Amino acid sequence: MTERERADSDTGTAGPLAGIRVLEVGHMLAGPYATMMLADLGADVTKIEPPGGDISRQVGETYFASLNRGKRSVCLDLGTESGQRSLGELATRSHALLVNLKPSGIRRLGLTYEALRARNERIVCVALTGYGLDGGDDPAFDYLIQAATGVASLTGDPDAPPTLPGYSSADNSAGLTAALGLLAMIVAGRGGQVDIAMRDVMLSQLNYRAAAYLNGGTEPRRLPFGAHSYYVPAQLFPTAEGYLALFITHDRFWRAFAAEAGIAGFATMAERAASRDEVLAVVTKSLGADSAANWERRLKALGVPAARVRTLPQALDEAADAIVTAGGFRLVTSPVRVAGYEPAYREPPDLGEHGSARLARNGGSSARIDYAGWPMAFMVWSVAARMRKRTRPVAPDHACFGNTSLIYIKSRGTMTRASGALNDDDVKAAPAAHATGLNKTYGSGQAAVHALADVNVTFERGRFTAVMGPSGSGKSTLMHCMAGLDRPTSGQVYVGGQEIGKLDDSGLTKLRRDRIGFVFQSFNLVPTLTAAENITLPLSLAGTKVDKEWFGSLVEQLGIGDRLNHRPSQLSGGQQQRVACARALITRPDLIFADEPTGNLDSNASADLLAFLKGSVREMGQSIVMVTHDPRGAAYADRVIFLADGTVVGELDKPTADSVLERMRTLGS
Q: Per residue in 64-105, pLDDT tens?
């Protein structure tokens, strides 16, 4: 069982961002902080590091851990062809990319939406820079931004030099803003470029100060002890021992404080503002009679806003619930606490722990990336809302299964037929699917990446076929082209005798809806629907009645009859994947594509799922194509096809785990 699974099983719910895959490129601090916040909420974050690693590793292990817990690390040289090829592979499988580099570096390394949209039109690319993607390469370290935006001039005693707050306020604020922009685009359900400038973030945080100047010409000024420009008293005060922050914003606070401090007069804020110096003098004198700790205790009991100034060690000692353990590191918890969910807080990754550049057998370089545990995709929440309302759209209706855009088009209440559809006899006589001369190229010129090269492959009806190969070999690209999720550059793909390249979008939609089932690594269950509603979701969206006998048979075989009224967060990983399998089979498809279906399951749940898939072939005559990296999983198949560098390089009938592993070794995996 993976660390994330263990955490989910302990808390009983997956993180709110479970299934969201985010890539991170850059160095300390804003970008890594942003993606750590996302990882804490359940997103799968992969940190793409150069051969020397993120420079924050040089600062120290603790510093690196404070920004990178719960992530994966892939070591790639993005300045090389193999690094760019691997970046493209990662981008194809991801929802978002967050980059924290100079604008020129972002463009040079192909880390913009414009550069990556050919690989994934729905990817969200966030550029986090000092002055914007078009703002130039001027240095933009945190302290420089604080100085350049006026923050430093607002901090400190008026008779002393400007000062800095003592922590990376610009970096952390920009990181949170970048995370917000990233999530906004994901919720919108579309890809695109998001531009975050640290300068703009800090100017935005000076909102009321900036508005006063822009609209009334009022220039901000520093006041002693960080005093507020309007509220009085609202600042730090010396006491008999230590300093106290007092923040009186309402007259009722003043009445309670004045009675406790023995101060008369100044009943209204207007009076106190007009007599600022006098008020501050009497308050300072009164507070000097006791310690900051005692004043905090006394005023807290009265509901007066006050807090003694603590050192960070003192604050941490008093906030035990805000300290968590991530591997061997004690760190501060996520500030976002979601009821029923406890983050996994996994340890920070070693450099290249989940993938690295290596020398290929042909003397060139390629990348070896471990995708184990990567969820495949997520589903648009509007589908669930529509299910709850039990309405069916008349206009084109979109639902997202992974990278699949399923478009259901209704005309006068009837689903449209795909042009050139074959009859049932034609379908049964043909292989489940086959391809001839299949090529898929991303990019052009020197940047071209040939994901598939003249692939000829047949998937026989009523057989369980596994597809294996090193990372970057084209396994997922082949599956996407065969399933009509992506169009090949050239060549033909047939599903049951139907050449899918001749189908328009509505024809492809009908093909996928009626004749193809999908099982993804991350389950892709709609969190607000019950298990039963998730199973029948394809039928509901298509406006088709549920065959209760077939539904009952699937539920019984999968052993989920007692979980039908439970939502995904109430199910184990194995139970969620069984629900996903039932959803794939509910339409009685000709062919099921499964992409790493056991990647998020423990060994027992994986064995159960694979046994069911094998049984569905034997007992139901189902045809299954499964992409996997696991030799033990491939051993459940009738046949294994091996890919390398986008080409079919061999196959194996009646595989065993040992024979598959040996064949993979010959491929350099």
A: 999 999 999 999 999 998 889 899 999 998 999 999 999 999
Bond from prior residue into 438 cis (ω within 30 degrees of 0):
no
* pLDDT recorded at residue 378: 33
Domain 224-311: state its class: alpha beta
Residue 158: other Cβ atoms inside 10 A: 9
Query: Which CATH number is correct for 432-666, 3.30.470.20, 3.20.20.140, 3.40.50.720, 3.40.50.300?
Result: 3.40.50.300
Q: Can you tell me whether residue 192 is helix, strand or coil?
A: strand
- Rounded-to-integer distance, Cα 250 and Cα 271, Å: 12
Instruction: State the pLDDT confidence band at 365, using cuts at 50, 70 and 90.
Output: very low
Domain regions of the chain by residue span: 3-137+173-205+338-368, 224-311, 432-666
CA distances from 279 to 237, 259, 284, 292, 533 (A): 12, 14, 9, 19, 65
Give 3-state DSSP helix, strand, coil % of the chain, rounded to 5. 40, 20, 40
Confidence at residue 447, expressed as pLDDT on a 0 to 100 scale: 66
Highest mean pLDDT among 170-184, 218-232, 398-412: 170-184
Q: Looking at the whole model, is its pTM more than 0.85?
A: no
The answer to whether 3-137+173-205+338-368 and 224-311 have equal CATH topology is no
pLDDT tens digits along 515-569: 888 887 777 788 778 999 999 988 887 788 899 999 998 898 888 999 999 988 8
Give yes or no for residue 399 having a pLDDT over 70: no
Sign of CA dihedral 656, 658, 663, 667: positive
**How many Cα neighbours within 13 Å face the side chain of 149?**
26
Residue 132 CA, distance from chain mean position: 23
Least confident of 86-95, 417-426, 432-441, 526-535: 417-426
The neighbouring-strand residues paired with 47 are 24, 73
Is 51 in contact with 328 (CB distance < 8 Å)? Answer: no
Q: How far is Cα 635 from Cα 637, in angstroms, rounded to an integer?
A: 5
Domain at 3-137+173-205+338-368: CATH code: 3.40.50.10540
Mean pLDDT of the chain: 84
| Residue-by-residue DSSP string for 611-651 | HHHHHHHHHH---EEEE-S-HHHHTTSSEEEEEETTEEEEE
Q: Phi and psi dihedrals of 305, rounded to 5?
A: -65, 110
Residue 660: phi and psi, rounded to 5, are: -70, -45
